[in-house]
Amino acid sequence: MTTTLRPAGPEESGADGLRSRPFDIRVNGRRAGALRLTVYATEGDVFGRIAQLEIAPDDRRRGRATVAALAAEEVLRGEGCRQVVASVPATADGALELARSLGYLERNLNMAKELPEHPPSLPRGLAARAMTGPEFEDWRVEARERYVREWVERGVPETTAEERGRSAHATLLPEGLATERAALRVLTHDDLPVGTLWLSTDPERLPHGADAYVFSVAVDEKHRGRGHGRALMIEAERLTRAAGGRVLGLNVFAGNTPALRLYASLGYRPVEHHLYKPLG
After folding, report:
1. Which of 86, 105, 170, 212 is the most buried (most CB within 10 A)?
2. For the chain, percent helix, then strand, then coil, each to nearest 5?
3. Is-contact 201 183, C-beta < 8 A?
4. Is the pTM of this model over 0.90?
5. Per-domain residue ranges for the chain?
6. How does pLDDT run across 111-141, given as a tens digit for each residue?
């Protein structure tokens, strides 16, 4: 049997030059599923996304999704894409296994936790306070540099990563320290700064139904391994509950084993995997 893609509608144009098009997945001319591809350009590259890939129940477990995904990659190559990305819900075990078998690499993972009514207190000797203006200026530079480095190490062109960093800070911290529903905290140990936290409690801007989101948590290198990362996450949970939230979300980059272990030990569960594959 022959599995092919056939356009199911005209190309649609969106903001920032994004282009999207639906396809039917057909087996010997019979519709067996649906697929949607998007293409978007940045200053550094052209990317493709498999935004939807769904196989009809009666056609599953017959290799249709594999053939459709490979055909989608060929379409994206023809559009000049050098990389394809896809997001897979943590509950879709089969889709995640398929993506990995086709050479997709995990770039980052969204996680979430439903918080207890009364989060624990910070350990003795630790305290969290508001970030000062001068601290914010230093933190903003360091946070953006760290953000860019994390993306570049996972296959994103530097110019694209820098563009994302600028956009994220401009969108999420438009008023800097004074941004409404943004919490920027410094963790101290016996009054000595040892780490920082950036938390948003603006659910309208947040993914996966989270009431709050940790956008950055960092411990100074010389103070790592002493439980300060755990303390910063406790502070994030306390701030979330104080703002009336119940679900706290976060993003963690693939390969950050200490962070993954910390979040798992605190009860965070995977929500969505984000993967990529170079298109040579």
Report:
1. 212
2. 35, 35, 30
3. yes
4. yes
5. 3-81, 113-272
6. 999 999 999 999 999 999 999 999 999 999 9
